[in-house]
Amino acid sequence: MNLFGALRAAMQVPELRRKLLITIGLVIAFRMLATITIPGVNALALKQLFASNSILGLVNLFSGSGFGTGGNAGISIVALGLNPYINATIIMQLMTVISTRVKEMSKEGDLGRRRLTQYARYLTVLLALLQSFGYTRLFETFTFQGQNILSPTTSFPATVGIILILTGGTVIMMWFGELITEYGLGNGVSIIIMVGIVAQIPNGLITFTNGGHSQTFTIFIFAVIGILVAAGIIFVQQATRKIPIQSSQRVVGRQVYQGRSSFLPLRVNQAGVIPIIFAISIMFFPTLFANFFLPAVGQTGGVVGQLATWFHTYWNPVGPSLAVDIGYEVIYFALIMGFTFFYTAVTFDPEDAADNLKKSATYIPGIRPGAATAQYLARVMSRITLAGAIFLGVVTVVLPLLTAFLTGQQPNTGLYLGGTAVLIVVGVSLDTMKQLETQLLMRQYRGFIR
């Protein structure tokens, strides 16, 4: 069943029609909020800031294009988007590995999950306050042609107001995402991010073509690369390593269950886009933190001020020299690979998988149950995770540079083929399509049983 056929069938089912309408309504509300901007923003300086740092472009990507950098440049009230919420969720997932108490809480069923979700919300507010303060400080210090994005003489109450507005926008986006997940269709956070990416396409085309002037050959190259990348992403996202498993004959009461052969699917890209999000946060954090200690114009600020100035100057993908740029990209690539392995280890525990197989009287042919099975699964998972980590690094770091080389367009200006954007749009579309087909299939089964 294709996408349009599934949507047409879903609109004929009252339950699915309600889910679709709720999702569409919340998405429209999000886009309406994204058009409300904070007053007093220098649009030209804002464009220059985002043009000088591609990591800021990726931050804007995950925030749902809250920073308008096109013709209607401005800082939206939902500019932070879901970045703090995503980071808070990742931190809580990591805490299940670090803290025994949090891990026990995660196994307490629905009650434990609700408590962890509540803690993630509190952490989201804290991270949003810190991040909004860092952005405000950045906007007050960044100058272009002698002008700041925000006036450095902004009064303290006005600064506090901006921080609270940006934090409140994140809380609203978090609420919208949870509403879509609970009452709509698909993962709310992913859908909001995807809609923000898609919303940037028309403005990117206008900017790239200088208001409509034809660049047919370059656009054709973009289209060809985009199709090839989307096909590759679909192939990797759907790829699994099928581990053959065999279940033994069991007797439960008077019922005898015969053994059967099956397989255990291990996804190549088990971590999804989470390593990219975490790597972006780590790469952007030094610059964001250094903005707190930047000295005033004409002053050195001591050791702390000099260190902050060094990070502000050199810790970005468009540095003063080619060596600095290459070093930055290499560190970025290494972080993506490292976080891919780390997050895969968090989400997939070979020992738990081996214990579950053993409890269900299932084994891998040729592998002894228990510790030997756990070691085998860990070895296989490490190999396919290496392929997934290289894939994420190539899509995120190498692909934009390759596209810029082939088209002559810089990765941080105009229209460019961001592999991260394609990865998110394709991945979210596939997941939403699967959920829709599952809902339709369950509906058909219920009708058949009745």
Report strand order across the widest sheet. Answer: 8-5-9
Return residue spans where pLDDT drops below 50 for at least 5 consecutive residues. 412-417
CATH architecture of the domain at 1-208: Orthogonal Bundle
CATH class of the domain at 1-208: Mainly Alpha
Classify the fold: give the CATH topology of the domain at 1-208: Preprotein translocase SecY subunit
Strand content: 5-15%
**Count of separate DSSP helical elements:** 16
Query: What is the helix content?
Result: 55-70%
What does this structure look like?
By secondary structure, the chain is mostly helical. The protein contains 16 helices and 9 strands. It has a domain of 208 residues: SecY subunit domain (Preprotein translocase SecY subunit, Orthogonal Bundle), CATH 1.10.3370. Helix content is 68%, strand content 7%. The strands form 4 sheets. The chain has a 3-stranded antiparallel sheet with strand order 8-5-9. The longest helix has 37 residues. The radius of gyration is 24 Å and the shape is globular. About 1% of the residues have low confidence.
